């Protein structure tokens, strides 16, 4: 039983319900095609992480995106 965990930033830039459904479908199909895994037992979980709780290079994503907008 494959288990795939996708983490994305939440908030205003979070993926829509339709985008999440496409990710779940696509990952399930990929595992079925490439690894011959049973789609009926493939689990895909999407976690939305608040941008203040996701850090890159010592700064939160919130800060990094604000800096990028101000350049």
UniProtKB/TrEMBL annotation:
EC numbers for this chain: 5.3.2.-
Domain 4-oxalocrotonate tautomerase-like: 2-63
InterPro entries to which the protein is assigned, alphabetical: 4-OT, 4-OT-like_dom, Tautomerase/MIF_sf
Catalytic site positions: 2 (proton acceptor)
Keyword Methyltransferase: no
A GO term, aspect molecular function: isomerase activity
UniProt keyword terms in alphabetical order: Isomerase
Entries under Pfam families matching the protein: Tautomerase (PF01361)
Coiled coil: none
Family: Belongs to the 4-oxalocrotonate tautomerase family.
PANTHER family attached to this UniProt entry: 2-HYDROXYMUCONATE TAUTOMERASE (PTHR35530:SF1), TAUTOMERASE-RELATED (PTHR35530)
Protein name, entry field: Tautomerase
Protein species of origin: Neisseria flavescens NRL30031/H210
